Amino acid sequence: NAGVTQTPKFQVLKTGQSMTLQCAQDMNHEYMSWYRQDPGMGLRLIHYSVGAGITDQGEVPNGYNVSRSTTEDFPLRLLSAAPSQTSVYFCASSPPRGQGYTFGSGTRLTVV
Amino acid sequence: AQSVTQPDIHITVSEGASLELRCNYSYGATPYLFWYVQSPGQGLQLLLKYFSGDTLVQGIKGFEAEFKRSQSSFNLRKPSVHWSDAAEYFCAVGSGGYNKLIFGAGTRLAVHP
Predict the structure, then answer these.
(1) Are the beta carbons of A90 and B103 separated by less than 8 Å?
(2) Looking at CA atoms only, how far is residue A40 from chain B in angstroms?
(3) Nearest-CA distance from B20 to chain A in Å?
(4) pLDDT tens-digit readout, B20-30
(5) With helix as H, strand as E and coil as C, how does B69-92 read?
(6) CA B43 vs CA A17, A52, A91, A92, B37: distances in Å
(7) Is B24 exposed, middle or buried, given 0-12, 13-18 or 19+ CB atoms closer than 10 A?
(8) CA dihedral defined by B80, B40, B103, A21, rounded to 10 degrees?
(9) Do A45 and B100 touch (CB under 8 A)?
(10) Tens of pLDDT along A32-70?
(11) Pairing between strand A10-13 and A64-66?
(12) Of A31, A65, A85, B15, whose CB is crowded by the most CB atoms within 10 A?
């Protein structure tokens, strides 16, 4: 049981490049979310999903896209990377009204 | 709008001393409340949660938290801190029927031997 798996762990992008951060969970959780963590700001919600085919925006969605075609996968796409998107990104999953979110180990992204 | 405030950015305690980390929330309905811990370079681990019922909740690693509706608080406590407790601690409130978590800015705990 791997839990929540995020890839890659580290990534450096040039401004304007696009990329996809991968997130997969093997716990059959309905809820999945993407957060970014910046110093002194805690974690801020980017996008979330309450099931396959259902996504919605969080606090800071601009510049990011998501889709949820399967229960297991919830990729986060950066459309045109900007230095302001330098951050640590966390994916998390949870059963509905369940035992709390389980977090992945994060992706550290640097945009130069 | 929902929000979470952790008033203490950094706290330093001596090993063996007691610990209390403060958390205040703003939420219109009965909140779902959580405490998470993050060790350096790691993801977040759930310490404990409050959904309803007994306002004193027990978690892992000897932590507990008390929900006080009148004070809009959910403070985390531990009677005796170990050096391995040094980490960053985040309080969060579940919003929108629990499917979204709103986090505080975190409290970084240092433990002196």
Answers:
(1) no
(2) 6
(3) 19
(4) 999 999 987 77
(5) HHHCEEEEEECCCCHHHCEEEEEE
(6) 26, 24, 9, 10, 8
(7) middle
(8) -150
(9) yes
(10) 999 999 988 889 999 999 999 999 999 999 999 999 999
(11) unpaired
(12) A31
3-state secondary structure of A10: strand
Do A44 and A57 meet the contact criterion of CB atoms below 8 Å apart? no
Residue that the structure tokens 């929900």 belong to: B67
CA atoms within 13 A on the CB side of B64: 10
Span B65-87, mean pLDDT? 96
Name the token pair of A38: 């910046």
- Residue A84 phi, psi (nearest 5): -65, -10
Chain-chain contact of A103 with B9 (C-beta, under 8 angstroms) = no
Q: Is the pLDDT of residue B47 over 90?
A: yes
Residues B63, B77 contacting (CB under 8 angstroms): yes
Q: Which residues contact B97 (CB under 8 A, 6 or more apart)?
A: A97
User: For residue B29, what pLDDT is reported?
Assistant: 76
The predicted model gives B49-73 an average pLDDT of 93
Question: Closest residue of B to A31, CA-based?
Answer: B99
Is B43 within 8 Å of A106 when comparing Cβ atoms? yes
Q: What is the pLDDT of residue A37?
A: 96
Looking at the complex, report in whole angstroms how far the Cα of residue B71 sits from the nearest Cα belonging to chain A.
Answer: 22
Q: Cβ distance B6 to B23 under 8 Å?
A: yes
